[in-house]
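Continuing from the previous page...

OK, I double-checked the sequence for Radial spoke head protein 9 homolog against my notes and this is the correct one:
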Amino acid sequence: SLNCVEWSLLPPATEEMVARAEQLKGRFQGDPSFEYECTEINAEDAERLFEDGKEPMIKEESRLVATIEQIDRAVGIIPRGAFVKTPLGSVHENRNFEGLSLTEAKKLSSYFHFTEPVNLKNKTLLEKADLDPSTDFLDSLEHDIPPGSWTVQLEKGGTVVVLRSLLWLGLTFYHVPMTKQYGYIYFGTGEKNLDLPFML
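Thanks. Re-ran it with the corrected sequence; updated structure tokens here:
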């Protein structure tokens, strides 16, 4: 929205959008039609540039879509047990989920990335033996690289658990233990904190 009254949907992100947006540095301009020049170009873009005679550009709208996709992939999280995987492989919201206990809610291992698992596939059979295949089918936050990229805090007198990402500054996840209430929101500049390994 440009006026906070009329809203329109963003187009879905493509891999090309994400790859081009990762090359851009600096803050957003606030104008969806603003065009950024791509400084680093791959072989396909170089070939197109030679054919078209135009420099490769990416609109701010596309950069915004790609950044939202990157944030969702990297730091979109859910509490353990909020979703279940059936024996047939489909994933559903767990209607029996009543929230994590306060003890479990304070552990980073009780939260999972809500995206296709990467680290889980690399685990050995011995490591997988202790996992419940119906609830532990996603990557846990405790194995994120670099270690220490999440903070866990208690708010409102210990009644709300808040996780904050140090990689995407501005991402805040909350969970009210013993309830179904959880969610996350991002208020940030849209820039990844690439200095994080040096800050820890």
